[in-house]
Amino acid sequence: MRxxxxxxxxxxxxxxxxxxxxxxxxxxLLPADAVADAQLVAREPGVLAGTGAAxxxxxxxxxxxxxxxxxxxxxPDGTRFAAGDVLGHVRGTARGVLRAERIAxxxxxxxxxxxxxxxxxxxxxxxxxxxxxxxxxxTPGLRALERAAVRAGGGHNHRWSLSxxxxxxxxxxxxxxxxxxxxxxxxxxxRDSVSHTTVIEVxxxxxDQLEAVLAAGVDVVMLDNFSLADLTExxxxxxxxxxxxxxxxxxxxxxxxxxxxxxxxxLISVGALTQNSRxxxxxxxxxxxx
Length: 290
Description:
Blueprint (H helix, E strand, L loop, with lengths): L6 H12 L5 H6 L5 E8 L3 E2 L3 H15 L3 E6 L5 E2 L4 E8 H31 L6 E3 L9 H10 L13 E3 L1 H9 L4 H11 L6 E5 L5 H5 L5 E5 L3 H14 L3 E5 L7 H5 L5 E3 L2 H4 L6 E8 L1
Parallel strand pairs: 6-11, 7-8, 8-9, 9-10, 10-11
Antiparallel strand pairs: 1-5, 1-12, 2-4, 3-5
Helix pairs in contact: 1-3, 1-4, 3-4, 4-5
């Protein structure tokens, strides 16, 4: 079950954090009937994401301020844009526009940064069979939004949470070995204890671990921090022995991802998509009339 907060919950918390007792500046300075027109303008090129959250910020603010506030147009997630492009238009009370502005921009800038970074990785592996996927290295509470941004950039999502798939990592294997348990037998028992639709993936960090893992009939093998030569050999061994997908992980960046894809892996997981993406420069240019 997906428990990460959807846009409405994230925005509710963000608005409460940003203006717990209202916007003192706007309420003291601006007439209640002042009207604002604002355009969302790109200051640099990129890929848009977070539009649902931005729309939610303006909608919730309209209710909080009991004023008129309408997002008249907004480009959809996944839109590629150039510097200077107008991506949206909002009109309503000036107090409302300015109260919603920072929350809407924070989410749009962060999530568009994720989408833009993802798109760069996707473009880097174009023409190969490799898919770029994210990881659980997401901002707490923002997983649903960040993973939607990865999709907007052309990437794919890994398992949603610890509850959704079996992923046996190096620490799991270390515990099994320390307990004197046979890895193949233990992995086969996992299949008997979960639903037949549950994906079972196992991470290995050495080629000599593959035999025991493949003998268990797992669905995905993750080759973690392998050299290019070992990745190529790992793919060959997996293809000969099973129908499992092969995932590469560790040490992935824009300068290495193309070569990693060239080894024949099916998936390349990149924590940097959500962990290291920079915010994109987007602005809300506003004019106000009485």
